[in-house]
Amino acid sequence: MKKIAESIFGWMYRLLKGWDFNDTLASYFSLCIDIVVLCLLAYAIYLVFRFTLVTAMILIAKKTNTKFDDLLVSNKTAKYIAHLIPLLFIYKAVPIILKNFIYWEGVFGKLIGIYIVLLVLWIIRTIFNALRDYLKQQPRYSDKPIDSYIQVIMIVLWTFGVVAIILYLFNISTGKLLTTFGAISAIVILIFRDTILGFIASIQVSVNDMVRIGDWITMEKFGADGDVIEINLATVKVRNFDYTTSTIPTYSLISDSFKNWRGMYTSNGRRIKRHVLIKANSIRFLQESELTELKKIQLVSEYIDQRQEEIKKYNHAHNIDKTLSVNGRNLTNFGLFRKYINQYLEQHPGLNKEMTMMCRQLQSNEFGVPLEIYAFSNDKTWINYEYIMADIFDHIIASVVYFDLEIYELPSSKSFLDQIK
Question: Which InterPro entries does its entry note (predicted)?
């Protein structure tokens, strides 16, 4: 390329010297002509290579099955490469054109060299952007923080680029530059503290598989409760269920506590854990006449017969005085109701029978005795899950009256008015 430039430029200076022009006039006049010719040639080279490279890349992208070359086209990689070729030509031509202007040769040569370094970095950036878009389209990489890795690589490349520019611009040796960087390393670490912490956090999050794109996470500290839509070097974006967006520092995912609901989605069911409060003074022993009536409830009729037989044998064997219900073994309306709910859950089509399922009594409190349902729904979709849970508790609330139980609720103003009347 240098020989080509020498054959193209310098002829005007030689021609003028042959016409007995003095050195100064010949130098300035030939410089103007050479600059015009250089600009025209550089622009022509750019147009030729832009058309050639862009057309070739588009044709290749259409004929291949891979999507990566299509993304290179959309990121305009070929267009930026076409800018590079005339720049290299100019870089080789400047020493020839400005050979009589030593000072300006050094200035323009360095400026063009800096521009070439920046352009190369920009071309690399477009390639990595295409790679990022390509990896995001692959199912096995769709939940990985690809943006974070690309950002880290580009930060490293830009750092090397800036170092190369400084070395080239000021003719500084590598040893002196490293010594200077060592002296200001504390300031650099302070400035890029969040970036460094974010980089470390993104690696730990990825390696430990703590969060993926698409995960439902809850982090009350930052008001986040929704799906992860983006994991960057410094931040994690969460689209909340009210369609607001929460931004969480990436480092907070390893320094603070948060809840990831991915395990629920990958399991065979979504947990139902809710209770109702039963009034303690409505819990009592059942009489024989009441048991006869309760046998009409099909889900517990066999259980009542079985328990009655067991209780009679026990009380008879131990000579229990049954003039008082508190003596010996007895059935309670609350215990029978728990058995009924267990049987009801066993037959409910919306629950996973292979996972834990029970109706249990919790520690009583000032509001009554909590009766908790612990089970897992087959359907994990939010709307369907809420419907299944509501269906179960609708039935529980409606069926307590058949066991002469009451659900606790705070009295309303209407309740006080009814008592006064």
Answer: LSM_dom_sf, MscS_beta-dom_sf, MscS_channel_2nd, YbdG
